Amino acid sequence: MIHKDVRAIVDDVHIRQMRGGTVVTHAALTALRSTSLASTVTSTKDFVSYVEENANYLRRIRAASIPLTNGLRYVVSEVQQAAKRGAGVEELKRVVSDSALGFDRKLEESIRQIAEIGARRLKSGDVIITHSYSSSVLAILKKAHQQGKRLKVFVTETRPELEGRDVARELATEGIDTTLIIDSAVSHFIEDSDKVMVGAEAVAANGAIVNKIGTAMIAAVAQRARVRVFVAASTYKFSPETMFGELIEIEERSSSYVLDDTELKLPNLKVRNPAFDVTSPQDIDLIITERGVIPPQAAIMIVREQKGPLLFTPHEAGLEKFLHEAD
Amino acid sequence: MLPKDALKIAEDIRDMRIRGAGQIARSAVEALEITARESKARDVKEFLEELTNASHTLLRTRPTAVSLPNGIRYVMHRVSTGAEPSKSVDEIRNVAVVAAKTFIENTRTAVERIGEIGARRIRDGDVLLTHCNSSAALSVMKNAWANGKKFEVFVTETRPRFQGHITAAELCKTGIPVTMILDDAVRYFMQEVDKVIVGADAITANGALVNKIGTSMVALAAHEAKVKVYAAAETYKFSPETMIGDLVRIEERDPNEIISQKELDKIGLIKVRNPAFDVTPPEFIDLIITEWGIIPPLGATLILQDVFGVLTPEELHEYQTYELEEVWGSVT
């Protein structure tokens, strides 16, 4: 049975479409934790499947989000293991609570460390372009600003959901010199810029990143203009599946975000609205993780270290078996 | 002083009753033609002075229009190279009238001819991508479709004013299958595209393309993916000023095109910048389709010299650098 709070969070368009993986993961884990704690089922077996079912449903918030997947996976596997050890429902509830809070805390902590590390890469006077909403990028910019570095930030509005306006508001509230531009104007302003800084939904084993649609073009423009491209991403966003040939799924969202249903009703007109794109590692200079700054080509190292406890895939059973064999 | 009919045209241009790049240029040239026809000048020198004065008046009517100085320059280049003291006023008058008529005729048929020429470059089964709304680019696609070629077109919505919607509607009406995408999604779909075709607001002496904001990113994405980029441009869009080192100025438009004042006030103290055009370097352009035929971008100087002659620095003050101005929904 899917709890109504879980449904509500999956249906929350604001969270689902306008926030980065960190916010999404936090919201999902919070929902999973509270609904599990409120559960009235009495058998261990039922409780475990209740948690599994709801966790699985929560992945619908964003299939491409690796921290979301990893976080939910972590909670589910902790519960499964505890159940195997013979824990009762009350104890399992504690396990859900502890593991959800634990993962969330680690993720939050990773953002703090990313801010620390990323801020060191910014100088006073830097002009930065950012795209879409990333908690890590905001944390870095705020940190650098608090350290007294004078920054100027170009924020793309980020069609179609316009979450760039929220980014602009947060930066302006902090007192950072902020300029809002349309996504298409990045190329025009790239010559005035020193750095591009974006977050990531996922980092693949080859160092490519999946991020909000438009990121790939911005990175390509920046690379050509010799402007550095920094990606801020905690190691929870690295995707072990890609090591085994799995491609990260790019969702296409409703056409109504591009074209109002009442506009242009024409027989031979289609709309396509992919939510993310893939930026190739050649267009990325650095990935800022909580464990330090790495070149994109080193993503494979992080992925290798992580594949054990955090692996989660749509075809988990088969792949896990494969992994054990690989070990 | 301009003759009455010519003055009326100048006022209509100035007061925006005449709109659209092509129409502005044709009207200005027509005013020049009227001046030439009605001139009572007794010698060539006096005739030239009259025409030059008329040019100056017309140039001042709309300092931001791209096409207007080009129209004037087209006629004046031919008049001044043909004006020898030995010739009679009527002979020179004839040069002016013929040049004006040719210019008007050329600009009127340019879009159609670009369509015919460009259509030959489209193949059956092509997937095209276009940005913004360009009558020249549309003409190419419609011509190809009329020739029985089957293809489909990705159309970007083109923030902030969504001219892509106009393009999509026009293509759909012709029967061409269209897929509307975000400007941000161009690179995502580039693998599926065979050719990018865009219009031009101006072409510079080095073959760079000044066009709707976002065009340079579209062209970069195409270039990276080895997809051909065609710019469809009437020759009156070529910018002679850039031959003497001037840059085309890029207009920045009202921030409220991007975000309403109410939303902006909610965000707080931020700036909004809204440039209307950007510059695509010639390396990203494979061909420019003009009404005189297809040229590589580096052939732009040839067009400039053929059509407008060589601009000397002394003439600079007469042909000031224009600022491109966007005319909403105009079909030139």
Short description:
The complex is a heterodimer of chains A (327) and B (332). Chain A is α/β, with parallel strands linked by helices and 327 residues long. Chain A has helices at residues 4-11, 13-18, 21-37, 44-58, 66-84, 89-120, 135-146, 164-174, 186-189, 215-224, 299-310, 316-326, and strands at 127-130, 152-156, 177-181, 195-198, 202-203, 209-212, 228-232, 269-271, 276-279, 286-289, 292-294.
Structural account:
The complex is a heterodimer of chains A (327) and B (332). Chain A has 327 residues and is α/β, with parallel strands linked by helices. The C terminus of chain A is likely disordered. In chain A, the strands form two sheets. Chain A has a seven-stranded mixed sheet with strand order 3-2-1-4-7-10-11, sandwiched between helices. In chain A, strands 5-6-9 form a three-stranded antiparallel sheet, with helices on one face. In chain A, 48% of the residues lie in helices and 13% in strands. The radius of gyration of chain A is 20 Å and the shape is globular. Chain A has twelve helices and eleven strands. In chain A, α5 runs antiparallel to α6. Chain B is an alpha/beta fold and 332 residues long. Helices cover 45% and strands 12% of the residues of chain B. Chain B is built from eleven helices and eleven strands. In chain B, α2 packs parallel to α4. Chain B is globular. At the A-B interface, α8, β3, α9, α10 and β8 of A face α7, β3, α8, α9 and α10 of B. β3 of chain A pairs parallel with β8 of chain B, so a sheet runs across the interface.
